């Protein structure tokens, strides 16, 4: 795979249209493009956003959305989850503002906006782990790195099923384009923004799973988007907070970063998302992210790789671009570079006005505008939106979520669990049911938890099997005296179980465990070793944290948060499920890619 990519480097691929249309669809595209006004054409390039909490049609927010449709002719909307107000306080800021949205609310609102639009809306969402990633009650799958940890051919099978199910549920609520799969090769342990969102660090393995996702998306009637082009996996700056710079040459990019993108384009990917990253080897212009780079989006993506589908920007509200240009100018620069859709501008009206002014002034040529609008229209027609744009509101409860789909997701969570160390043969945990167990919930920092509350599933699941569980949460806010109390408590217990929760969360700027917590875990390893007490640690979120505490006697990785990951970890710990995951990343020389210890059910 890598060798073929290297041979192909520098050669122009023959572009092919990834959108298959029947005769009626072709006619609709041609007729619609011909009759659109300048304002309507410019509007097709704009994708503003809305949240999916309940929204009355008698509200300022709904009026603003209506205005975007009727006066600015936007091409579609990006669907977020939901949020609640939270105070911006400095001390004890344990508030989380992000919550899940409601599927019926999304379906109703997309229907209502579709009826107001002269051209069908092409709606998008970040359903990276399924529709349940954003909407309550929908099916939620593991993070991509967890999917990459599933051994053998089961990974591709489950990834394809994930994409199919996500497509069916997304279409049921009026969302047509999913910003997944992440095609980035995460080979930088300090990557604060991709991390577990990637399938892993092996380009060939990532390519295989990207291919499986694209096939499943087609099965589910959804447009998948490979992102973040040309590769965001080897950065150590969060593009939500700044502009990452990737210094590799083209040869390296062809060997690693571009391999999954080339595979995706070759297999008919219909959409690509540009990355807010700077690559001087491809575009030496200063402070020019891929989003603003014609050499990257036009020369590399369209000419060299042969991509002819829709190019989306990443969110234009991210600091990587907002610090470089005002919304109107940012939209123009992205479009001139080769983007077809301007996503989530901090001011979509300013983006519209900037693009229109650039066309009027001749800065944007009419042929380029028409080509982009035609791509967007072809995407809409390929989904049949020219024939039917509304969804069946009554069908939403049966079309979103359900036990059969959840069972497939639970299989994926279970197969992803990876055992990388078990010096004392403590997994499965074989202590008697009446054994007193100390459970430690070790949290990076206590702020911002809302959808994923650490240990809320782990503790009750653990108590089902061992009722005498004492649960203690520690974090970077825990005092030294409280940590000493934990150390002194160890002799009272017949086993110790710790869950470590470390986020690599977009925009947080953090991805580590506090030094005092690392020291606590190492101290517990020594104390339990002397006493012969079983001690097992389960890692949730950033898996690279395990490499900082190699002294721990037993370590399980889940690569994820949320209730299903916690449930899967307890089942593995208790011997209720087999363990067979394999590392999709290297943690150290003794823990290379592909390493994992198998355990059968007891």
What does this structure look like?
This protein is an alpha/beta fold. 38% of the residues lie in helices and 11% in strands. The chain has helices at 2-8, 23-35, 38-43, 60-70, 103-116, 144-148, 154-172, 203-219, 250-255, 258-266, 294-304, 319-322, 327-337, 348-360, 366-382, 396-399, 403-416, 458-465, 480-489, 515-531, 562-574, and strands at 46-47, 49-50, 78-79, 82-83, 98-99, 124-125, 177-178, 223-229, 271-274, 310-312, 342-343, 418-422, 437-443, 469-474, 495-502, 535-541, 554-557. α7 packs parallel to α8 and α8 runs parallel beside α10. Residues 1-11 have low confidence and may be disordered.
Provide a brief overview of the structure.
The chain has 602 residues and is of the alpha/beta class. It has helices spanning 2-8, 23-35, 38-43, 60-70, 103-116, 144-148, 154-172, 203-219, 250-255, 258-266, 294-304, 319-322, 327-337, 348-360, 366-382, 396-399, 403-416, 458-465, 480-489, 515-531, 562-574, and strands at 46-47, 49-50, 78-79, 82-83, 98-99, 124-125, 177-178, 223-229, 271-274, 310-312, 342-343, 418-422, 437-443, 469-474, 495-502, 535-541, 554-557.
Integer-rounded radius of gyration: 25 Å
CATH C-level label of the largest domain: Alpha Beta
- Assigned CATH architecture of the largest domain: Alpha-Beta Barrel
- Order of strands side by side in the largest beta sheet? 2-3-6-7-8-9-10
- Tally the beta strands: 17
Taking pLDDT < 50 over at least 5 consecutive residues as the criterion, the unreliable ranges are 1-11
Q: How much strand?
A: 5-15%
Number of helices: 21
Proportion of residues in helical segments: 25-40%
What is the overall pLDDT average? Answer: 94
In terms of structural class, how would the helical and strand content be classed?
Answer: alpha/beta
CATH superfamily of the largest domain: Glycoside hydrolase, family 3, N-terminal domain
Please indicate the count of domains: 2
Task: Sum up the overall morphology in one term.
Answer: elongated
Please give the alpha-carbon distance between the first and last residues.
40 Å
CATH third-level topology of the largest domain: TIM Barrel
